[in-house]
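Ex. 9. Protein: Peroxidase.
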Amino acid sequence: MARRRENYHQFSSTSFPPPFLLTTMANSSLLPLIILLLSSAIIAKKSQHPPALSLNYYAKSCPRFHEILQNVVVPKQTATPTTAAATLRLFFHDCMVGGCDASVLISSNAYNKAERDMDINESLAGDGFDIVARVKTALEIECPGVVSCSDILAVATRDLVIQVGGPHYEVKLGRKDGLESKASNVEGRLGRANMTMDDIIRIFEGHGYTIRELVVLMGGGHTIGFAHCKEFESRLFGPKPDPSVHPKLAERLKAMCANSSSDPTISAFLDPISAGNFDNMIFKNLLNGLGVLGTDQAMASDPRTRPFVEEYARDPVVFFRDFARAMEKTSVYQVKTGKQGEVRRRCDAFNNLQMGKSKTTQNI
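Predicted structure tokens for Peroxidase:
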């Protein structure tokens, strides 16, 4: 005890450590606290900012992702030429309702009426759903639980556009599949064939698009698209047919849709001149009164949209450039990353049915 008191006495009264030693001692005692605070800040920052999308997201986790997707997409489009149009429309309908999160792929069940069963989505062709399901099945064999359905839909859409002659554009990866799909979320987020141009512009502007982007996306989507007779028959039949429909086109569509009441699957290509080819012909058609849908033809008559229709009819290079840019913008619209979503085991169902029940029973 005496020795300990003596040492203490010497230290406290006669031998203070030099200033640099005091600083070192203070720093060493605070170091664990500093590390803890920095670690907490980093973790908090990561939680506030989920992982960003990237072009090489699957480079290590599923390096053959694109090869496997191509092995499914190319022969499917070759065998069924309407696949590209069906998939492009499916992709757009998905992204415009809650973001590009594959929520449109979810099937309804006893607890929930999903997006795909809203009336505007009932005409979505089965080939779009089929291509995503096929790619997902192939990828689950190669790298199970890794690639999201939303990434599959985004890349398949791009590759199919290219396959039918459209432009290349970048698709960043890393989307997660959404955890919600409600039919009640759809209305007001997608354009309908009987809407006015004011309505269409309002919807697109609500999603952050310019009028130029509206024209390029509608024209680009419809250059390879098709529509069922019910979407445009009001322009042909009834007491007041639409006078803007070219007489020869009207005659052709009337003959085609004569039996549509008994066969609602009858459809017509929206570009009657170069159907199935991704080109700028649809804009030339609109300037000649050959628009099948009323909303398409309205783009050629409305002073807000007509200048862009004329520009794209003149210059296919500008059309391709603007379409590629608009699709890149669309592909990252309100995407989910990190813990905001999941990688579904199958694209038409949430991984956790109980979770789906708790989210959807409120909407029954």
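Check your answer against this statement. Confidence is low (pLDDT under 50) at residues 1-16, 19-23, 43-48, 355-364.
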